[in-house]
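Today's session is about reading a structure prediction critically. Students often jump straight to the picture, but the first step is always the sequence itself: look for stretches that repeat, for charged clusters, for runs of hydrophobic residues. Only then move on to the predicted structure, which in these notes is written as discrete structure tokens rather than atom positions. Here is the chain we will use throughout the hour.
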Amino acid sequence: MKVGVLALQGAFDRHAQELSLAGAAPLEIRGPKHLEDVDALIIPGGESTTILKLAESLGVRDLLSDQIRDGLPVLGTCAGMIVLSKAIIDGRDDQNPLGSIDIDVRRNGYGRQLASFEADLQIAGFETPFRGVFIRAPLVERAGKDVEVLASVEGNPVFCRQEKIMTTSFHPELVSDGRIHELFLELAFASS
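Below is the predicted structure for this chain, in token form.
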């Protein structure tokens, strides 16, 4: 299975490493042509405004949105969650998310860089906790009725799924635990 990693900003190389360890063939997505060959996609963390602007200027945004609407499995982590959300509560006027998953988020909802933290997460289906690394993490303020919450911190969703779309407020690529990537690949394989 070929899994694209949007390589416009963020720790896309760490996601590629995790995908390789899980048995997938990662492809760096830097333009529309690269999207033609993927079976699934990861949108990594970084700065959501920059990711959206680069996706637009490189001609990736509309194609990406169409492919997700047509069923492309996608995992968005941190800024990727913001990019995929229905609404950005504190976003800029020119920051329009893809609207792929029915969640509303607040950028840096847990605080700025100095408020970054780690937490052991109880994730639905995992026998042991997963260490979540939260860096300027988005806060999910609303999850639609069709969104499954797979993990929460203090009552706030931090890992969501809707059909073939998964999002995390945290960075699963920054820990030595490939279960999130493996779970995403299971979702992607099940849908192919």
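Discussion point for the tutorial: The radius of gyration is 15 Å.
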